[in-house]
Amino acid sequence: MAKKKVKNKKPSQKWKKYKTENNKIVSRGKTCPKCSSFLGTHKDRLHCGSCSYVEIISKK
User: Fold this and answer.
1) Maximum distance among all alpha carbons in the chain?
2) What predicted TM-score, i.e. pTM, was given to this entire model?
3) Rg (Cα) of the chain, in Å, rounded?
4) Which residues 6+ apart lie within 8 Å of 19 measured at CB?
5) What is the DSSP annotation of 11-23?
6) Exposed/middle/buried for 48, CB within 10 Å: 0-12, 13-18, 19+?
7) What per-residue confidence (pLDDT) applies to 17?
8) Tens of pLDDT along 1-60?
9) In a 10 Å sphere around its CB, with 0-12 CB exposed, 13-18 middle and 19+ buried, how is residue 40 labelled?
């Protein structure tokens, strides 16, 4: 049998979700009010992958 091709995974970029202010770590993104994980940002909504919470961004 032929070997399967290995797909190269994109490395985690969790360091982009935080910043430091006055020697304290502060989160940049918005967190889910239900499960406190980060919300994924799409062009028209914010979505939680863990509990399926959705916030619609209105265009006004």
Assistant:
1) 58
2) 0.62
3) 17
4) 25, 26, 28
5) PP-GGGGEEEETT
6) buried
7) 85
8) 778 888 888 888 888 889 999 999 998 888 999 998 999 999 999 999 999 999 999 877
9) middle
